[in-house]
Give the backbone structure.
Amino acid sequence: MTDLSAGSRNRSITLAARPEGAPRATDFKIVGGAVPRPGPGQLLSRTIYLSLDPYMRGRMNRSIGYAPTVDIGGVMVGGTVGQVVESNLDGYGQGDFILCSNGWQEYSLSDGTGVRRLDPADAPISTAVGVLGMPGHTAYVGLLDIGQPKPGETVVVSAASGAVGAVVGQIARIKGCRVVGVAGAPEKCDYVTGELGFDACVSRYEEAFPEALEAACSDGIDVYFENVGGAVFDAVLPLLNTYARVPICGRIANYNQTEPPPGPNLVPRVMGLTLVRRLTIRGFIIFDHADREPDFLRDVGAWIRSGELVYKEDVVEGLEQAVPAFQGLLKGRNFGKLLVRVADDPTR
Amino acid sequence: MTDLSAGSRNRSITLAARPEGAPRATDFKIVGGAVPRPGPGQLLSRTIYLSLDPYMRGRMNRSIGYAPTVDIGGVMVGGTVGQVVESNLDGYGQGDFILCSNGWQEYSLSDGTGVRRLDPADAPISTAVGVLGMPGHTAYVGLLDIGQPKPGETVVVSAASGAVGAVVGQIARIKGCRVVGVAGAPEKCDYVTGELGFDACVSRYEEAFPEALEAACSDGIDVYFENVGGAVFDAVLPLLNTYARVPICGRIANYNQTEPPPGPNLVPRVMGLTLVRRLTIRGFIIFDHADREPDFLRDVGAWIRSGELVYKEDVVEGLEQAVPAFQGLLKGRNFGKLLVRVADDPTR
């Protein structure tokens, strides 16, 4: 249990500059300050795990009027697992483990909005920002509600060993689909077929990647769960079957682009295929689908307990590792759900 | 009533070559042959009206395994209104007016597949290939089922004075939407606002077309019914609101393209907006939605009778005009639903 002795400091990572292209270390700043004390109706928690997710790259950009943004000098946002240090909020007491949104920092106040108590007996607390948290919820809604897979259909998911992709593919398998992953490094592909039970996994590093994907999808593709964009999307497009669904969850290949890529302009080709093959391409953001969280927690929780669904975490140690770890995330260097252990996990 | 005297000839327009880009006159051939006689279970009809529609351009291409194609030397396909000359088919008698698929020719046999009897007392028979036919059905399903407009939303439709667009916009108006058309010539825009009752219509010929469209859509765009693609799509894209729906019905600007247009490649931009704004882009083809035909005929029929929905036909005279009329259709030269009067309409 945290002892807030006099002189405790709160370290935070703030956005120092809006990145042009790939974020650089100098775009962030570690700042120190006093640990705040909770006012009435507030709680103070110490961050144990910070979740690092690709969507955070968008929050570093200037607002385009739709997506929220982090102000210059503001603390980077992020989902966290914390432990209550001091509480003036009904229903929460010192020592409670909670899902919270402390962002990239060691301590934060909360009025309870979006906070949920975690029972370490139910599942490891780290899963609340992973397979049983936002990434898992994203996979569940994106696949089942947006993708609407039917048994026997072929589902392809990119970033297949990642926090979202691994759950997408395993749910698709559980629902009776043929599942093909796209991943990077060969050991990730081995994990996807060996541990996650996908029918196949193709490395996007392969020289003949489009041909390899086509060979792995001999019946075409009925659902493509889009996490990456770029060359993977280009290779998927001609393989999409009539009535295929394409949930757009992310497009990490484009996040650091400052200019559109060179031509030709393939928008007419995409729209032409969308018409002829009656495709549905649909973007979604998980925050619109909070109503499905109970279903998600029930189903994925049960699949984890039964062993049908497994997960892998990639944990880096210490808040100061958040920036290099996030830089690596955008390059596909993590292997499994990326977490920063900001403080010791007392449940382990 | 047609008198099939000895020596009557059947003229047909066949596909002589697959067009490269814009179809040329030499890509077609007018051929003459004997008028066939119906066998058991068949009827022979004489074509009165031939419908010319943009989708026919796709049928001239080599098959890409999804869309049907016309063989070289084959008669061009097309929806028609005809009159029965001779019938060995139960339920049809000489002189009956029918919706049929005679294609670009004067006489054709049918076994009754897809044939429907028309009562000239219900509506002018030409409407069976227009506002009360495939184009109207396309508008009805594409707007209501794919676009799902809600009262008060802004609906934009391109090719707004065309066979499909005019019906889309009027249904949207009837359903309580704010409706903005995109058309070409200024007299078309005047017709769209004056006769069809759209709230606004922007000419794509305007130099500052994107700005003019933005000014006409001060609350953004909730449904964009896509008929044309190209620069109109590019101008619509940034104006789409969160949760906007984009039914892809056609993309006439691209039909004659033999190569993708030059860069930059805007696919990442389209997909990025699809994600951030949670867009739904969905292609559809009317033949998948036959189950909605009774609803369409009931609703649009009632709106026509009540005067809430009007239509305009652009009729050219004589089968030999089909090719130049179709060439003009791809350039937006028609004004209203394009028909070829292949034989006199005895109901007029």
Q: What stands out?
A: Chain B has a mean pLDDT of 95. The first strand of chain B starts at residue 9 and ends at 15. Chain B touches chain A through 45 residues (CB under 8 Å).
